């Protein structure tokens, strides 16, 4: 019986180490991808197996990463697809930085995510339709970037979404008004000159013969 218990204990320990290593590798990939003038990521040491000891990282009782708080951190550089490996992550807070490049489609793998706050960066490209798989998402704030393209219609499937802000970008096409998006006001979409919506919402209609890339 004691031998069986030891085997189970070693197996559980192995699972924990594997999860910690995968999550540590994912976070360290972010550190390598960004410039950090104030050294806020200095504690992110890849030789430490458990990333729960790193500053700005919060973990649950099983030592799985649940929160990443890096707002106002003066970071520049790019987000990395490896962030999609943080399966227990609930809060991804990277607002008010100078991050560039696209939002990785792999963020759609963050099934536990409640809040995605990437506002006031310099992100470009389209909003990934893969974000529609984030069924627990309540807060989606992408405002104040340079995002282009259409708002994915798949996002209207986010039934738990309470706050949406995609204002101050360069989005185009029409505004989704079905599903969870039916409750959001014009402020959620403001200052996207190429975005068109119902006249009753006060939007200036964009010439539909023009391109929407």
UniProtKB/TrEMBL annotation:
Domain of life assignment: Eukaryota
Organism, scientific name: Trapa natans
Keyword entries, A-Z: Leucine-rich repeat, Repeat, Signal
InterPro entries noted in UniProt: LRR_dom_sf, LRR_N_plant-typ, LRR_R13L4/SHOC2-like
Signal peptide: 1-20
The UniProt record lists the keyword Cell wall biogenesis/degradation: no
Any one Pfam family match given in the protein's UniProt record, by short name: LRRNT_2
Domain spans labelled Disease resistance R13L4/SHOC-2-like LRR: 68-167
All residue ranges annotated as the Leucine-rich repeat-containing N-terminal plant-type domain in the record: 21-60
Name the record gives this protein: Leucine-rich repeat-containing N-terminal plant-type domain-containing protein
């Amino acid at each position: 019986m004691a031998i069986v218990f030891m085997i189970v204990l070693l197996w559980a320990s192995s699972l924990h180490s594997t999860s910690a290593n995968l999550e540590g590798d994912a976070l360290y990939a972010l550190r390598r991808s960004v410039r950090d003038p104030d050294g806020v990521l200095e504690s992110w040491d890849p030789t430490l197996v458990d990333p729960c000891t790193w500053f700005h990282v919060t973990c649950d009782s099983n030592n799985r990463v649940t929160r990443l708080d890096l707002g106002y951190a003066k970071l520049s550089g790019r987000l990395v697809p490896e962030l999609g490996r943080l399966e227990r992550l609930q809060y991804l807070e990277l607002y008010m930085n100078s991050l560039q490049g696209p939002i990785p489609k792999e963020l759609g793998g963050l099934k536990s995510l409640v809040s995605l706050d990437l506002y006031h960066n310099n992100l470009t490209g389209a909003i990934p339709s893969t974000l529609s798989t984030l069924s627990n998402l309540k807060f989606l704030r992408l405002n104040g970037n340079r995002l282009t393209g259409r708002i994915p219609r798949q996002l209207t499937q986010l039934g738990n979404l309470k706050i949406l802000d995609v204002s101050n970008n360069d989005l185009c096409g029409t505004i989704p008004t079905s599903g969870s998006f039916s409750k959001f006001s014009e402020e959620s979409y403001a200052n996207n000159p190429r975005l068109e919506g119902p006249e009753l919402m006060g939007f200036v209609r964009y010439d539909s013969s023009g391109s929407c890339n």
